[in-house]
Amino acid sequence: xxxxxxxxxxxxxxxxxxFGSGRDGTDVVRGVSLALHRGRVLALVGESGSGKSLTSLxxxxxxxxxxxxxxxxxxxxxxxxxxxxxxxxxxxxxxxIAMVFQDPASALNPAFTVGWxxxxxxxxxxxxxxxxAREKAVALMETVGIPEPERRYHAHPHxxxxxxxQRAVVAMALALEPAVLLADEPTTALDxxxxxxxxxLLAERQRAAGLAMLLVSHDLGVVARLAQEVAVVYxxxxxxxxxxxxxxxxxxxxxxxxxxxxxxxxxxxxPRLRSIAGHPPDPGRVPDGCAFHPRCAFATARCTTERPLxxxxxDGRRAACHHAESVLAGTAPGGPYGGSDL
Length: 342
Known about the structure:
The chain has two domains: about 10-225, 3-Layer(aba) Sandwich (Rossmann fold); about 250-340, no CATH class. Helix content is about 35%, strand content about 20%. It has 13 helices and 14 strands. It has helices spanning about 50-60, 85-90, 105, 115-125, 130-145, 150, 160-175, 190-210, 220-225, 245-250, 255-260, 300-305, 325-330, and strands spanning about 10-20, 25-35, 40-45, 65-75, 80, 95-100, 180-185, 210-215, 230-235, 235-245, 310, 320, 335, 340. The strands form three sheets. It has an eight-stranded mixed β-sheet, with helices on both faces. Strand 11 and strand 12 (about 320) form a beta hairpin.
């Protein structure tokens, strides 16, 4: 359990990420603050385009072309990465912070064998001999559940199944024993059975090494299996954050509530999937006030003009909603979305 005095293994503070520059720039991440603590898994949840993957890439200093950190800070083990040189980033990636990407096929070089790619960090970063690096790579392949690692060491990525490729990517991320592991939709491309295997592997390795882990996902079921804490993102801002059990049991933000209601259930009497009305806003045309208000059943006139702050509620979780207490109680304040003063 994390205690208040423990410093985060990695964190972002009031992070703003924009595409473009100056007045022509468009903020896609708008003031996100997250702290990753050793031995804990924090999940970042939201629809596509909410800014969650960009936030994870900012931790690694790997923002795509055209994107930049407009303001705020990114820290890895207390070091502000804002002034890092490429050499400093190379020293940090893999050794202190590592990432498991969504598509294992794009994370592996098809021209080299899988074993060679897993062994490379041992040779390049630790100066191990070729034989010693191979020995470590084979042991790591066995640890992540790749069968017949001695033989598969010489196989190329196309000779691996999707699940085995993802296991290899996990092995590469864990090779140099980083303190922080980022996992961006690590099971999206896998079938249900393989997905469960990879989730079990990530959970086992995270617990065994006491890693600080950020899990990026749109799948609330995946999040429930790995995380202890969840942060829900909408239109580039965190709208709710707290212990997973607290948030899942009773969401305090209408968007979180909508995400939970949209999870399919096998119960009788639910013939159709429920969905959130409307669409996420264009990053360049985010509504005034609360960005979620055009889709919200709890919205009032205040929501259209005053942006709600992320505030701490009585149970310790934080929510950015003027009507969080009403959401928890399940009583709408009224209007055309449910509110009489709009």
